[in-house]
Amino acid sequence: MKALTDSSVGTIALGDLEVRRLGYGAMRITGKGVWGQPPDPDVARELLRRLPGLGVDLIDTADSYGPEVSEELIAEALHPYDGITIATKGGLERTGPGKWPRNGRPEHLKRACEGSLRRLRVERIDLYQLHAPDPEVPYEESVGALRELQDEGKIRHVGVSNVDLDQLERARGIVEVVSVQNRFNLADRSAEPVLERCEELGIGFIPWFPLAAGELAEPGGTAAEIAAAHDAGPGQIALAWLLRRSPVMVPIPGTSSIEHLQENLAAAEIELTDDEVERLNAG
Length: 283
Description:
This protein is an alpha/beta fold. The protein has helices spanning 6-9, 41-50, 69-78, 106-120, 139-151, 165-172, 192-201, 222-229, 234-245, 258-266, 274-282; strands at 11-14, 17-20, 24-25, 58-60, 85-90, 125-130, 155-161, 177-183, 204-208.
């Protein structure tokens, strides 16, 4: 398949970093339940090594993916990351498969960042994101810890994740926020107000779970019908719609399959008509 080009997906500035608007989410290169090693680590490393040649220059991960496994595999496969922006996250812990307790205490976030620096083999993380607000910790304290890490030179840029409008504005009062990572897809558009605010501010919006299309992907559904017209899959239509939806949108579909990776990236070549976009917008 053709590599991604700036013209096919466009680019966006995350602070002083310019990346193409279709990245890779590295959660699925771990074991079942995002826990432990993948079935074949060599396959995971090979997938990662293919990303630069396919035009992917943004990789999103987190210390909780594995935990630690995703970051370690990325470093093994791609360090020293020539031309690639690595984004990682802290603020969730793991107590077992499918278990993601939040921990936004400043001391935890600082330890988490130090661990990510070590595993990724870097002195400064390109984009470090607070994975989620912790209801047990004042949000300003959590964000303040990232500001301190940035002041210490350990973080280049700060992002937030799983936030509402109020939390975004409170974070912006403490530190420059260059990205927001919230759940957003054809089936779940509840973060629309946050997306619109990101558009106003020129902040990158990274939708997680981007391939979901819900009932629209079922036989007879709008996404399924449009997919058939483009000889594509509903997931590809979901990605193409996201790319059309907003110039600040930066989808990061994740997969452990090289074949599926190529399908995801091919979504950048799908040109939806205005009528198709309107039908998808209507749900």
